[in-house]
Amino acid sequence: MNMTAKKSANDQPILSMTGFAAAESRFPGGLLLIELRAVNHRYLELNVKIEDSLRQYEAHIREQLQTRLGRGKVECRISLKSDSAATNLALNPAMVAQIAQTLGELQQHFPQAQPVNLVEVFKLPGVLQSEAVDAETLAQSVQSGLSQAIDELIAARQREGEKLKQVLLDRLQGVREQISIVKPLLPALVSQYQEKLTTKLREAMQADDDRVRQEIVLYAQRIDVDEELARLNSHITEMDRILSAGGAVGKKLDFLMQEMNREANTLGSKSVAIETTQVSMQLKVLIEQMREQIQNIE
């Protein structure tokens, strides 16, 4: 039976550290294109790749990412795409005056030359200039666009986190089932050993019943795994609680995997039958599968 605790109003979602998000933010004269990619990492590592024209906003971009995101290796790309249809173009008076002066001087040297084509003049660099983008307006566009991208990234990580949580719950149920196999086996193993030991000792040494009983007690103590099973059940309960509460639980779950693996190893070392050895091996497989998934949890 799955003993997962019911969620309370204070429970938080579990987030994967892997995700992707893209957003656009329009401003007068162009468009901001924002992409966020995230993979698992021990801590938060930011890699901000932006155009030189946006370099003045890098500190604010990093601060916004650090405030909203926890662990993970996050790459942030922001680029500008100009929108000529939405840009108000005007003549650059200084450039036009310079060109006119130069043409006038050339006309004196080449009076027979054809008249200047104004269309060609418009094509010269610097003749037409776009209105300068207000720095505050651009900063607001960066902030709002990045905020939207972060929202989408968190939503993607939450969806992936729910999938990881379900995988862990399924594997945890498998651990419960393996534990339920072990405990009923112990009395039968002791009984089998008692019959074999009694026969061998009586045949070889003509041992009395007290000696046989002492050997059986020592054997039972050596294969007793009640303590290990109790600790495994305790770890299962704690893992259920952590998964139910949610939040940044990756490091806690990773520690629990180490503890559960230790108990599974001890169970294997105390094994005296193929059945318990198989249970120990299956437990370690399930624990390793959970550990691999936990590496992606924030």
Give the secondary structure arrangement, pairings included.
Blueprint: E1 19-27, E2 30-39, E3 44-50, H1 58-68, E4 72-82, E5 89-91, H2 93-109, H3 118-122, E6 128-130, H4 135-182, H5 185-205, H6 209-223, H7 226-245, H8 250-269, H9 274-294
Parallel strand pairs: 3-4
Antiparallel strand pairs: 1-2, 2-4, 5-6
Helix pairs in contact: 1-4, 4-7, 4-9, 5-6, 7-8, 8-9
Explain the overall architecture.
This protein is an alpha+beta fold and 298 residues long. 60% of the residues lie in helices and 14% in strands. It contains nine helices and six strands, in the order βββαββααβαααααα. The protein has helices spanning 58-68, 93-109, 118-122, 135-182, 185-205, 209-223, 226-245, 250-269, 274-294, and strands at 19-27, 30-39, 44-50, 72-82, 89-91, 128-130. The strands form two sheets. The chain has a four-stranded mixed sheet, covered by helices on one side. A two-stranded antiparallel sheet has the order 5-6. A hairpin with a 2-residue loop joins β1 (19-27) and β2. α4 packs antiparallel against α9 (274-294), α5 packs antiparallel against α6 (209-223) and α8 packs antiparallel against α9. The longest helix has 48 residues, at 135-182. The chain is rod-shaped. The protein starts with 18 loop residues before the first strand and ends with a helix. Mean pLDDT is 82; it is low at 1-9.
